[in-house]
Amino acid sequence: MSCSEPPLPPSFPSLVVMAGAPLPPSAMSSRSSGASTSYRQAALQKYLIKKKNRTFHKKVRYESRKRLAEARPRVRGQFVKQEVLAAQQAVLQW
After folding, report:
1. Three-state SS across 13-57?
2. Sequence-separated (6 or more) residues with CB below 8 Å from residue 45
């Protein structure tokens, strides 16, 4: 409870405040009933299907970008400008 929220009335001491909206205890206990177990099972089934379909291989979305990246000069895996590459090769030739 923050300072900006009004205090709860004393006649309702068992109210639960969630996201600014008070809920009676009966609403909270229905979450643990049999109705929510089917919701839980559906959510778990959805998670397992999504987990099974995960892909961990790299997918190239734009072939033109891939070709450009393969053609650009690199030093230790990082892209460099042509001038930097020429200067570095000149130093190595000394």
Report:
1. CCCEEECCEEECHHHHHHHHCHHHHHHHHHHHHHHHHHHHCCCCC
2. none
C-alpha torsion sign, points 77, 79, 82, 88: negative
Whether residue 90 contacts residue 83, with contact meaning beta carbons closer than 8 Å, is answered with no
User: Which of residues 42 and 12 earns the better pLDDT score?
Assistant: 42
CA proximity to 4, closest of 14, 16, 17, 13:
17
Sign for the CA dihedral angle at 54, 58, 62, 63 comes to negative
Could you give the 3-state DSSP secondary structure of residue 80? coil
pLDDT score recorded for residue 45 = 96
